[in-house]
Design brief:
71 residues, mainly alpha
Length: 71
């Protein structure tokens, strides 16, 4: 069965979130396209906030899955 490609903006958000939760710097954003970069930064900010709230490790992964299911 062929898998559908995910939305690149959603993937950028998820990657940014993962970097934010893991405590990586905002300067590690790999995107140059302004809209994709903004989605990555939004994800990073959300992840950083969750890190401060204690959603690290597996609970951060569950939080990302919850946000993905709602959005």
């Amino acid at each position: 069965m062929r898998r559908l490609k995910r939305d690149p903006m959603e993937r950028a958000f998820q990657r940014g979130y993962q970097h934010g939760v893991s405590g990586k710097s905002l300067d590690t954003c790999p995107f140059n396209n302004p809209s994709t970069r903004q989605n990555w930064i939004n994800g990073w900010r959300e992840g950083r906030g969750d890190r401060w709230d204690g959603f690290t490790g597996i609970s951060g992964v569950h939080r990302l899955n919850e946000m993905h299911a709602v959005g």
